[in-house]
Amino acid sequence: MTIPADVAVEGAPRRRPPEPKKLTRAERWKLRGPLLPALIFAIILTQVPFVFTLFYSFQSWNLLRPGNREFVGLGNYGKVFTDDLFRNAVVNTVVLTVSTVLLSLVIGLAFALLLDQKFLGRSVARTLLITPFLVMPTAAALLWKTSMYNPVFGLVNWFLSPFGVGNVDWVSQFPMLSIIIVLTWQWTPFMMLIILAGLQSQSPEILEAARVDGANGWAIFRRITLPHLRQFLELALTLGSIYLVGTFDAIFMITQGGPGQATTNLPYFIYLEAFRAFSVGEAAAAGVIVVAATIIIATFALRVVSNLFAEEAG
Amino acid sequence: MATVATTAPDVAVRRRPPKRRGRRRPWMFLLGWAAAVVWFFPVLWMFLTGFKTEAQASTDPPTFFFVPTLDQYQAVLGRNFVPFLINSFTASIVSTLLAIVLALPAAYALSLARVPKWRDSLFFFLSTRMMPAVASILPLYILVRNIGMLDDIRMLSIIYTAMNLPIAVWMIRSFLLELPREVLEAARVDGATLSVEMRRVILPMIAPGLAATALICFIFAWNEFFFAVTLTTTQAATVPVFLVGFITSEGLFWARLSAACTMAALPVIIAGWVAQKWLVRGLSLGAVK
Question: CB burial class (10 A; 0-12, 13-18, 19+) of residue B244?
Fold first, then answer.
């Protein structure tokens, strides 16, 4: 009876050695050595700037008025929260992120289910489907703004003309919808790839057994595939949200936040505060708020990754 | 439990997926291809428009058949596009190489060597990727301005390295974990030191994985816009910044715009097609294989 307890429980021998137990201080540093350059680099370039952002957010400071720099406590946060433009940016960010994530998730799921089937030229279809995600976002935005959305010569109106749609000026009449369509087009492949990876990690034996037991396609999907997909859907949802909250390229290129403030989201708002108004304090405060919001989503994301990770590590 | 008895042999026979299922459903073929064509169409349109004349580029109804011309490509190249391309390649390639050089030892420490608290470090890297760029842009901008490195391609390369580092660490780690343990142990038993083990055993085996990681890092760096537009102006401006010029004045020249967009997008489309198999691993930061 020399089988260690954990092996007995898991039923299979562990492939990896157990965690190193008692190491001297020197040994620990020797182990850590290879990790340090990357760790220090990441801390300097990501954590230190954020600490500065936090620091700036408590100061009244405009780059256009050098020397006029003072500590104002939570003053910037008060200013930002009572700023109608900021509130508008928050609403726009939520609308943009939620609708794009849900749309691309649903379409991505449909595409993934299609690509999980066998058909002629499936790998070519897959290659074509992922391409929109690869196209440089600024280039994609320009393309949609001109050749797609133009009221007279745009392909969208040409395509919709049999359905009685006239010369709609998409970007000025439906600015938010226009941005959402472009982003959905770009992010659907992202969702699709993650969901497809989930579909293809299903055990064929279980599916086959269910089929043999007489379950129909819908029942199999609902009872077996969907529960299995759950964590992949969660991963796609949270990672997609994190990236989409930071949407900047499409707004900068297509609407410049307009017309008026109709499509100004938080990153674009901060960009305007920082690089047009040069009010460091307020931009920093808004930045800290965005980070706080992102941390909430990221906590979920990290938990999902951690679950997948625990499964894989066995 | 009569059902079990009758289904058991059935399962054994059907273990291999039956071939006929694919042929029986032509609508899968139709639906799959319809989705692909619709989604790919804007990209195809961009590609086609770049070979049109300006008059053919904006017509109602759209022009599908025309004699291709290279005029627009010449016009874009004539408008000083090459320096932007060089900047983009410099920033993307330098940052990719740097990220891999930094990430490889870190990934080794976090997988095969298993430093104490490796899990915390791993998730720390992941969390830095989730931090929005707006959180750090101000201090970076002020710092970069104060040390006189605004509009400097070296600075942009360093920032892209930080952006790609978590992806590189997670991806390389996932490839290292796939190495057969027996081979590594054999090398160690034979008395190989760490550096010999790394060079002779590990590197040759994970070379394809490193290539995939490099392609993914390249994709992210090449397409990055936010830092490029805030930290560069003329000298170090990259391709996406070049495209900003088309928002206003040149936005009327659709054919030229499409030619520029095609050239801007092509390197990453090719990289992405080549790295397709590993794309999902990179996008999910190594969480999904």
Answer: middle
> What residue ranges do the domains of chain A occupy?
83-313
pTM of the model: 0.85
Identify whether the C-beta of residue B95 lies closer than 8 Å to the C-beta of residue B219.
no
Q: How far is B1 from chain A, CA to nearest CA, in Å? A: 13
Q: Which residue is it, tokens 């906590």?
A: A299
Considering CB atoms only, which of B45, B123, B260 is closest to A302? B123
Domain boundaries defined on chain B: 81-283
Cβ count within 10 A of residue B72: 24
Q: How high is the ipTM of this complex?
A: 0.84
- Chain B residues whose CB is inside 8 A of the A126 CB are 36, 276
The fold of the B81-283 domain, in CATH, is: MetI-like fold (1.10.3720)
User: What residues are paired with A60 via a beta bridge?
Assistant: A70
In this complex, the residue of B121, B124, B273 whose CB is nearest that of residue A127 is: B273
Each as own residue / partner, the long-range contacts of residues A295-301 (CB below 8 Å, 24 or more positions apart, any chain) are A297/A238, A297/A241, A297/A242, A297/A245, A298/A238, A298/A242, A298/B127, A298/B130, A300/A234, A300/A238, A301/A235, A301/A238, A301/A239, A301/A242, A301/B130
The CATH architecture to which A83-313 belongs is Orthogonal Bundle (1.10)
How many residue contacts between A and B have a Cβ separation below 8 Å? Answer: 338
Mutate: best of B134, B177, B253, partner A, most A CBs <10 A? B134
Q: Which residues of A touch B7 (CB under 8 A)?
A: 209, 212-213
Note whether B25 contacts A: Cβ–Cβ < 8 A.
Answer: yes
- In the beta sheet, which residues pair with residue A62? A279
Of A118, A146, A283, the CB nearest to B251: A146
Q: Does B121 sit within 8 Å of A136, measured CB to CB?
A: no
Digits of tens for pLDDT over chain B (289 positions)?
Answer: 333 343 344 444 444 554 444 455 788 889 999 999 999 999 999 999 999 988 888 887 888 888 888 988 998 898 889 999 999 999 999 999 999 999 999 998 888 877 777 888 888 888 888 778 887 888 888 888 888 888 889 999 999 999 999 989 988 998 898 888 888 788 777 777 777 777 888 888 899 889 989 998 999 999 999 999 999 988 889 999 999 988 876 567 889 999 999 999 999 999 999 888 888 888 877 777 7
Q: Kindly report, residue by residue over A113-125, the tens digit of the pLDDT.
A: 999 988 888 999 9
CB contact under 8 A, A131 and B130: no
Q: Is B82 on the interface with A (CB under 8 A)?
A: no
Give chain B positions within 8 Å (CB) of A155: 42, 45, 62
CA distance B96 to B214: 6
- Is B266's Cβ below 8 Å from some Cβ in A? no
